[in-house]
Amino acid sequence: MNSFPLKRIQDARILVIGDLMLDRYWFGEVDRVSPEAPVPVVRVVRREDRLGGAANVARNIIALGAKASLMGIVGQDEAGEQIQFLADEAGINTQLITDHTINTTLKMRVLGRQQQLLRIDFEYPPSDIALNHLDEKLKSLVLGHDVIVLSDYNKGALTRVQAIISLAKQHGMPVLVDPKGTDYSRYTGASLLTPNRSEMQQAVGSWTNEAELELKSQHLRQQLALEALLITRSEQGMTLFDAQGRHHVDAQAQEVYDVSGAGDTVLATLASTRAAGLSWDEAMLWANKAGGIVVGKLGTSIVTAEELL
């Protein structure tokens, strides 16, 4: 593996667009069962908020040394204000759209003895008015960046993803997508798609061996006019398919503590190293290393350039 291109990454300007969410953690102690129902009673001793979704991708890009702008939709509420505060604190250039008709997407996790006991989700699709504002703002932002990253969590910010990809292509800009759902035709024309193993199975069906996976992957890549398709496969590592064929890297030996947000770290590393001029297969090696580090951390976390170096 070549050395990490930190100097070139520091010149990279990456625009992240997608579903914003606030990850809220309540850490507590569990020493009794509720008399009301057979459930543990968690006495909360610490609270922590972290950037989630597309915002976590941007946070990882900053941690790797590149410059990140962030576009997405929040509600006019405390969670939206907290996303703005945390993004400012991280050094992210925010371009947030406020939708007065919804609440910000919020994932609340309750943990006891370092184990997740419960997750509560609050999520609402954005209005057409907010999506129109996002479209307008994007037109003036595209030219100031080298790479566009689309972080799709199926919450509605990327409802018009095809128009975003078309705009980026007009300006000759690479587009990396973390996809959701079963209809990948909406991502036609992107540079790279990064489904995980189960997402790939939803999109193309299951496979019985590596040859069948390669056949399905290359067919999908050509069908969608992608430069490359990268499948993240947990303990099986990562496999990249491009015009040159198949490239595979085994998973980094690592005790898996928490996989939440690992896809965000992988996407951020791919975008940063690609913006620095690395090929897709070289970028995959660094993304694999970053993914191996982040699963050893609790909750939505980041990997820094120092850790990779």
How would you characterize the overall build of this protein?
The longest helix has 15 residues, at 280-294. Strand 4 (67-75), helix 3 and strand 5 (93-99) form a beta-alpha-beta unit. The chain has a nine-stranded mixed beta sheet with strand order 5-4-1-8-9-10-11-12-13, with helices on both faces. The chain has helices at residues 6-9, 54-63, 78-90, 128-141, 161-170, 197-204, 210-223, 262-275, 280-294, 305-308, and strands at residues 13-18, 20-33, 40-53, 67-75, 93-99, 106-112, 115-122, 147-151, 175-178, 192-193, 228-232, 238-242, 245-249. With 309 residues, the chain is of the alpha/beta class. It is globular.
Structure summary:
This protein is α/β, with parallel strands linked by helices and 309 residues long. The chain contains 10 helices and 13 strands.
What low-confidence regions span 5 or more consecutive residues with pLDDT below 50? none
The number of helical runs is 10
Global structural class: alpha/beta
Rounded mean pLDDT score: 93
Please state how the strands of the largest beta sheet are arranged side by side: 5-4-1-8-9-10-11-12-13
List keywords for this structure.
309 residues, globular, alpha/beta, 34% helix, 13 strands, single chain
